[in-house]
Amino acid sequence: MLRFASELIPALLVGLLLGLRFPQLPSRLAPSLVRWGVPFSLVGLLLRSGMGRELVVAGVMAALVNAAGLLLLLGWVPLRRSIPHGGLQLGAVVGNTGYFGIPVAVALLPPSSLGFSISYDLVGTLITWRGPAAGAGARL
User: Fold this and answer.
1) How wide is the angle at C-alpha 26 spanned by C-alphas 131 and 92, nearest 5°?
2) Fewest CB within a 10 Å sphere: which of 24, 33, 54, 123?
3) What contacts 126, CB < 8 A, 6 or more positions away?
4) pTM for the structure as a whole
5) Long-range contacts for 84-88 (Cβ within 8 Å, ≥24 apart)?
6) Spatial contact of 117 and 97, defined as CB atoms under 8 Å apart
7) Of 108 and 41, which is predicted with more confidence?
8) Cα–chain center distance at 114
9) Mean pLDDT of 16-39
10) What are phi and psi of 100, to 5 degrees?
């Protein structure tokens, strides 16, 4: 625990000093970190947990489930009225498993299930990933 604190505290202090000296730095770094850092870190976790054929099948199944959910939102009018905006529709279907699903899988499931959670989240990330030339909001 002492080693963790001895590494964490200097890093936090450097971040605090950089934030005080350059107040606009976080707003410049955040879009790139979200756009590129999240998918790369997910791939790193996936590689660490071990990749196999079953994870590719899980990724394809996740893509099919996400596509079915999006088609259901587009085709079923009462559901589309209850979630009117494209960004909310995409968030309702894809979700945010990176902040909830992966920690739950780590805490409650055996270590072999981490790859399945990451493959689902990676597919969701790739579905919602947009390049710099894309518009500001998602429209379905």
Assistant:
1) 50
2) 24
3) 39
4) 0.55
5) 85/137, 86/137, 86/138, 86/139, 86/140, 87/137, 87/138
6) yes
7) 108
8) 14
9) 84
10) -120, -50
Mean pLDDT of the chain: 77
Q: Please, are residues 73 and 83 in contact by the beta-carbon 8 Å criterion?
A: yes
Q: What is the pLDDT of residue 133?
A: 43
CA separation (Å) from 112 to 40, 44, 45, 103, 118? 20, 15, 12, 14, 11
21 — pLDDT class (breaks 50, 70, 90)? very high
Write the DSSP assignment of the chain as a string of letters.
Answer: -HHHHHHHHHHHHHHHHHHHH-TTHHHHHHHHIIIIIHHHHHHHHHHHH---HHHHHHHHHHHHHHHHHHHHHHH-HHHHHHS-SHHHHHHHHH--TTTTHHHHHHHHS-GGGHHHHHHHHHHHHHHH---TTS-SS---
Tokens of residue 71, six digits: 């088609």
Residue 106 C-alpha from the chain's centroid: 16
